[in-house]
């Protein structure tokens, strides 16, 4: 079924995890072009090239853009959306919007997915950890959403769909703090589970999508947030390798398993499609029933 037939789709953090699953599902459901952003180190370079080989064919064009999403110039057109004097009118090798418009003429869908979660305990957390997490997760989302929204406003036909990948932690505070306390009382001090720097950035993304829905609706641009629960990705691979941690997390869901990246990519495709043409400002939990399970 071609849910997103002929759509030009931009995905940040596309080389692995949820971003990669989104690229695969958009290709599966009819997108004609994929604009795939990645970080630009050895690992993500290899990953993005393998993804490109997997999805590119005579029906799907692929353009890849490398860069640090925390840098506003990674997202913007030169000198148009970036207004501070430090970077205005400077050239930059990796502008997402510039690359997409040059290759495809428009951008129909943005999935703002790039994010990090370097686990750290709140009281001893270096300020640099907070700064970097906020810069990548929240600042980076703002920059790419603003840049793509300006393009969606100016293109003909006008409009598009923006999906921000938030988290269940946007609703409940420290995503892993309840698990840390449980494990601390029974096993060992698993302080690496504390993520009080990560959760505010994900709450910010949820709020950003709600505000963008209001600000951009008049231009035919929809904005929604997807809130994953515990999804098995590289972000939590090390922590979930501990079987006690993993099993407790599984037992907290009502479906009895952790999520996989493609559990999230399906709802993302839905929100990008015309099936959701009257959905904006919404937040969609994809958590296997974790949030409602108070037992």
From TrEMBL:
Example of a GO MF term: quinone binding
Plastid as a keyword of this entry, yes or no, is no
The protein's name in its UniProt record: L-rhamnose-1-dehydrogenase
Family label: Belongs to the short-chain dehydrogenases/reductases (SDR) family.
Which gene name does the record give? DHG2
Species for this entry: Hypsizygus marmoreus
Q: What keywords is this UniProt entry annotated with?
A: Oxidoreductase
Its BP terms in the Gene Ontology are: fatty acid biosynthetic process
Q: Pfam families under this entry?
A: adh_short (PF00106), adh_short_C2 (PF13561)
């Amino acid at each position: 079924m071609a849910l997103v037939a002929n759509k030009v789709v931009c995905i940040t953090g596309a080389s692995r995890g949820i971003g990669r699953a989104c690229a695969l599902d958009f290709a599966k459901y009819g997108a004609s072009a994929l604009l795939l952003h990645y970080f630009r180190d050895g690992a993500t370079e290899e990953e993005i090239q393998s993804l490109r080989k997997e999805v590119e064919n005579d029906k799907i064009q692929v353009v890849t853009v490398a860069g640090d999403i925390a840098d506003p110039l990674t997202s913007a057109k030169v000198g148009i959306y970036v207004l501070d004097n430090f970077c205005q009118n400077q050239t930059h090798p990796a502008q997402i919007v510039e690359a997409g418009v040059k290759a495809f003429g428009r951008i129909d869908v943005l999935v703002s997915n790039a994010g990090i979660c370097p686990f750290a305990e709140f009281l001893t957390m270096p300020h640099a950890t907070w700064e970097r997490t906020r810069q990548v997760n929240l600042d980076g989302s703002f920059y790419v959403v603003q840049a793509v929204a300006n393009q969606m406003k100016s293109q003909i036909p006008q409009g598009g769909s923006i999906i921000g990948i938030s988290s269940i932690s946007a609703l409940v505070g420290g995503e892993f703090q309840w698990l840390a306390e449980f494990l601390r009382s029974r096993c060992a001090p698993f302080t690496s589970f504390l993520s009080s720097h990560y959760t505010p950035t994900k709450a910010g993304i949820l709020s950003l999508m709600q505000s963008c829905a209001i600000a951009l609706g008049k231009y035919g641009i929809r904005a929604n947030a997807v809130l994953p629960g515990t999804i098995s990705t590289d972000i939590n691979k090390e922590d979930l390798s501990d079987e006690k941690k993993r099993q407790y997390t599984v037992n907290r869901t009502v479906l009895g398993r952790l999520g996989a990246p493609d559990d999230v990519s399906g709802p993302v495709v839905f929100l990008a499609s015309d099936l959701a043409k009257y959905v904006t400002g919404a937040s969609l939990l994809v958590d296997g029933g974790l949030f409602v399970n108070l037992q």
